[in-house]
């Protein structure tokens, strides 16, 4: 297996543990085999030394980050090409966002989600039925659903 | 002598020495409970009683401290009702109650009449439970009046409820907890 994610200057990381849990930052300097200096001016992460153990490496890199770059330089580099926005498009990030949204739902929202899921499932089953009929029993379960769901 | 008047009732309780009165309630009427951020029009979940789990609309707080709520009756079968705020979960959902006038409903509205209290008398007192013709007529008009109040309040409410999609079904459904729900994590 080829290793693709390296601990390097510019690597976008996600903090897994501590008060900043869940936030993204960039590696700015590598101190030793266990600690790095990270900075995340646009994501609310203060420039700090953090053990690598507390990080997850993402596949994105911040272009233009040089070793030991100051926060201002990092901010400029982010303005040019924002890897954090790219990360937000990944499936993992979307799952986290979905979970956070679901936690915020109030009682009425939860009720609406339940009703919409039922409607969607009803739509799916009618589609499946028609597909089954048209292909004479050998249906592909790829019926397209309708409703937008949280 | 300490200034406390001693009345001795012959044959009854004789007070020995000056008894300390530990607690004297200064208020004759208990203070109505402070409403925790519940606003008229807010949807509440009833937690106890016959209608437990039902979602109802809060109208106002009565003088006794109890909350006046209504289903509305047509949507979930809950009539105009008094409810203790301790047995209620307030949700963040609100219905517009600007057109609703619950001014004439107060604690007196819910007071049982003599005819009601004597309705189920049995045995020796059964005669008291039987209503005269005029009492029956009075009961009838009383109930009619109640139905009218319920209807007037509910009609205005239902008109407001219909404006939000799925709100009608929401009020008709009961709240329940399943195996995997974590009530302490739920946002209401």
TrEMBL record, chain A:
One of its GO terms (cellular component) is cytosolic large ribosomal subunit. Signal peptide: none annotated. Pfam families: KOW (PF00467), Ribosomal_L14e (PF01929). InterPro entries: KOW, Ribosomal_eL14, Ribosomal_eL14_dom. Residues 6-33 form the KOW domain. GO terms for biological process: ribosomal large subunit biogenesis; translation. Keywords: Ribonucleoprotein, Ribosomal protein. One of its GO terms (molecular function) is RNA binding. This is KOW domain-containing protein. It comes from Paramecium sonneborni. The lineage of its organism: Eukaryota, Sar, Alveolata, Ciliophora, Intramacronucleata.
TrEMBL record, chain B:
InterPro entries: 60S_ribosomal_eL6, Ribosomal_eL6_KOW. Pfam families: Ribosomal_L6e. One of its GO terms (cellular component) is cytosolic large ribosomal subunit. One of its GO terms (molecular function) is RNA binding. Keywords: Ribonucleoprotein, Ribosomal protein. One of its GO terms (biological process) is ribosomal large subunit assembly. CDD domains: KOW_RPL6. The keyword Transmembrane does not apply. Belongs to the eukaryotic ribosomal protein eL6 family. This is 60S ribosomal protein L6.
């Amino acid at each position: 297996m080829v290793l693709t994610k390296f601990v390097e200057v510019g690597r976008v990381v996600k903090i897994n543990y501590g008060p900043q849990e869940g936030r993204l930052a960039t590696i700015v300097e590598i101190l030793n085999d266990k600690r790095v200096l990270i900075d995340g001016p646009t994501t609310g992460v203060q420039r700090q030394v953090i053990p690598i153990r507390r990080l997850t490496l993402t596949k994105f890199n911040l272009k233009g980050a040089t070793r030991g770059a100051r926060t201002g330089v990092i901010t400029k580099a982010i303005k040019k090409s924002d890897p954090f926005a790219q990360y937000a498009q990944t499936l993992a990030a979307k799952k986290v966002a979905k979970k956070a949204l679901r936690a915020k739902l109030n009682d009425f929202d939860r009720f609406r989600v339940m009703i919409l899921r039922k409607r969607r499932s009803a739509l799916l089953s009618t589609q499946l039925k028609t597909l089954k009929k048209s292909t004479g029993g050998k249906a592909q379960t790829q019926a397209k659903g309708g409703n937008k769901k949280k | 002598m300490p200034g406390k008047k001693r009345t001795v009732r012959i044959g009854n309780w004789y007070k020995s020495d000056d008894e300390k009165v530990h607690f004297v309630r200064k208020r004759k009427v208990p203070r109505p409970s402070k409403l925790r951020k519940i606003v008229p029009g807010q949807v509440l979940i009833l937690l106890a009683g016959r209608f437990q789990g039902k979602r109802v609309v809060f109208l106002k707080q009565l003088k006794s401290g109890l909350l006046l709520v209504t289903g509305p009756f047509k949507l979930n079968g809950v009539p105009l009702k008094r409810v203790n705020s301790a047995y209620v979960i307030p949700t963040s959902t609100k219905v517009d109650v600007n057109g609703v006038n619950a001014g004439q409903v107060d604690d007196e509205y819910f007071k049982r009449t003599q005819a009601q209290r004597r309705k189920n008398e049995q045995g020796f007192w059964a005669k008291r439970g039987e209503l005269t013709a005029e009492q029956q007529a009075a009961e009838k008009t009383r109930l009619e009046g109640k139905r009218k109040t319920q209807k007037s309040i509910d009609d205005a409410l239902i008109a407001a409820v219909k404006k939000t999609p799925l709100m009608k079904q929401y009020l008709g459904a009961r709240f329940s907890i399943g195996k995997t729900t974590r009530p302490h994590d739920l946002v209401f």
